[in-house]
Design goal:
The chain is built from 11 helices and 15 strands. The radius of gyration is 22 Å and the shape is globular. It starts with a strand and ends with a strand. The longest helix is centred in the middle third of the chain and has 41 residues. 43% of the residues lie in helices and 24% in strands.
Amino acid sequence: MQLLTLNLENFRNIPFASLRFGQNSHFLVGANGQGKTNLLEAIGLVSALRSFRTQDTVHLIRSGAERARLFFTFEHEIEGEATVEIELTATTKKCRLNGENVGRMADFLGIFPTVVLSSEDIQLLRGAPQLRRRLLDMTLSTVDKDYFSALRRYHRALKERNSLLRNGKLDTKLLSSFESIIAPEAWALVNKRAQGLAQLNQRLQQAYQKICELDEQPELVYKANAEFETTEAVLKLLHSQRTRDHLLKATQRGPHRDDVQFRLKGRLARDFASEGQQRGLVVALRMAQVEAFQAVQSIQPIVLADDVLGELDPVRRKGFWAALGEQRQIVATGTVLPSALQARQWKVFVVDQGGFGDGAQ
C-alpha cells in the first residue's frame, strides 16, 4: 500500500495542506511544535479512525473551526486506487471509502494499516498494563474481525455488569444475564490473545535480531488475569467473585485486567534491560506489527516514525533500516535531516507553523 496524496483542512494547527507522496521515503523536518507529528497523526487516522495521541476528537479540530476534513488517495493491493474521506466534528466521525459511506467500523478496520513508531513507545514497556492491552487489542482487531467483535461485546456487557455492581442491592437475575454474555467472549479473548501473542512474539524475535544483531532472547509473555478452559469456568469465576466485586464496585477478574511482559534473557526488561535494549525492544515490537499486518492481510502497512531515530544508537538505527526493508513506505519526522548512514532517496517537506514546503533531498 502507498499513500499518494493527502489534503487536510482545519486539522490540529494545519489550516490547509495538499501533499503529494507516492514514493517510499518521506521526511518531515522542522522545529518542535510546527506540525510534524500532527501530519503523522492525520495519516494514522486512516487505520481505525482513532488518533494515536488522544481519545478526544475535539482536540483534532483546529481552534475556532467546527470540523476537520481529510482526503486520502492510495494505491492499494486489494482496493486498487482508492479514496478515503474523513470528516470530524466535536461529537461525530464520518468516513467514506471510494465515495460510499462506511457504516460499521468492523467493515473498515484494517483495510489501510499503518504502524506508528514514537519516542513515547517506551511507555509500552515501562507504563501501565492498559497501554499494552490497548496495543494488543488494536493489533489483533486489525487482523481478526472476530476478535474485534468479541472485544466489543465483552466490554459492553462488562460495562453493564459494573453498573449493576455499583447499585446498593444486587439484581442477581439481571447480573446473570450479563454474565452469560461476558463468559463466551472472555473465553474467546483469552484464547485469541494467547495465540496472537505467540505469533507476534516470533516476529518480534526476528525483528530484534535484525535491529540489535545480538541473541538476547527477547520475549513477549502473555499474563492472563484469569485462565479459563471452558465458558462454564468463566461463569463459575464470575459467580464466585460477586460479593467481592460488589464490595469494590467493579469486576476484578477477567481479560480487561490482562497484561503482557517484555523479557530479555528470561528477565523483565523493565527492571533489568538497559535504555538501548528497551528501545530496541519496542521498535522490534512495532516492526513485528508491520510483519503481522502484511502476513495476515497481504497489505503492506505504511510506517510512521515520529522522531524516533534520534532515540536509537547507531547500531540499532542501522538495524532499524534493515528491518524496515526497501519497499515499505515510510513517513518520518525529525528536527534535522536524516544522516548519510540512512541511505534512502528522501522526499523532504519543511514544516513551519502548520505549512509544508518542499525541501532539499
